[in-house]
Amino acid sequence: MIKGHSLSKPFQNSLKIFTIMKSRGIWPNEFTFAPLLKSCSNLLDLQMGQGVHKEAISSRFESFSSIRIGIVELYESCGTMEDAMKVFDEMPHRDVIVWNLMIRGFCEIGDFEMGFRLFRQMSERSVVSWNVMISSLARKWTSRKNVVSWNAMISGLAFNRKGELGVDLFEEMLLKDVKSNDATFVGVLACCAHAGLVQQGLDLFASMTTMHQIEPKLEHYGSMVDLLGRSGCVKEVHDLICTMPMNLNATIWGALLSACRTHDNMELAESAVKELIDLEPWNSGNYVLLSNVYAERGKWDEVEKVRVLMMENRINKAPGQSMVR
């Protein structure tokens, strides 16, 4: 009864039933307090909620996860984030729900920095987490239209798999005469990669130097490798890599290798793994990958050569790795 009334108006009814329950000598249990706290949150009744919180403590049910989440939600709803933080800090296990409540609470009172700090601390982020952060940044962005705010919005949309919206936002940013920087292009190229916008990504990458006087860095090339590789443009990835003016790292060659294997280009895959071995001769995984690429192409003599090379270089295969025999 208490739970049912906590889910629909008038929320006061759940509190009235609780009062009747106590008057009849029926003691609450661990399932009683969470819906009561929910009712107080819905009513934005901080004083009543604090009373329920005290009863949960005196009944020794405060340590239950659902009740602690209810307490955090109460203080978050009422804007008393200092009290919410005290409860949050005492929680031994914090699931994504309570993290989202804390982020939303701090953003609602205008403390976007604290909200974003908590967001970055999360080990697991849900769609709700991203939506809370993006909508909060949007509010901040409207009042402080600097490039950092725009970049945060664009990057947030990329990683929330809303790439087309991120590209639209980038174009709006240019219309507002906000000067982009290299971080802006990391974000908008990531948007193109997640949304599969190949031609738009190529155009934006070219515009970095021609229109914005920004020299592409390794992370920009990495975004382009990701964009082209996801879309099956494996040869184009290789051509781009060959034109890169800086030293390549294992991440770039690994991305090419992944694209080659996904789209069945074993010739380029072989080239990519050899580059990985040159960069990381100590990494047994690279030798295993090369051996498997040769096996997939039926080059059994080459498979044996890789095995011999590993023995000569005293490279031990890591547990769980498989070389085709």
Task: Give the topology.
Blueprint: H1 2-6, H2 12-23, H3 33-43, H4 46-58, H5 65-77, H6 81-90, H7 96-108, H8 112-121, H9 127-143, H10 147-159, H11 163-175, H12 182-195, H13 198-210, H14 218-230, H15 234-243, H16 250-262, H17 266-279, H18 284-296, H19 300-312
Helix pairs in contact: 2-3, 3-4, 3-5, 4-5, 5-6, 5-7, 6-7, 7-8, 7-9, 8-9, 9-10, 10-11, 10-12, 11-12, 12-13, 12-14, 13-14, 14-15, 14-16, 15-16, 16-17, 17-18, 18-19
Search tags:
single chain, 325 residues, mainly alpha, 19 helices, 72% helix, 0% strand
From the N-terminal CA to the C-terminal CA, the straight-line distance is 66 Å
The total count of strands amounts to 0
Give the helix level as a range of percent: over 70%
Question: What can be said about the biggest beta sheet?
Answer: none
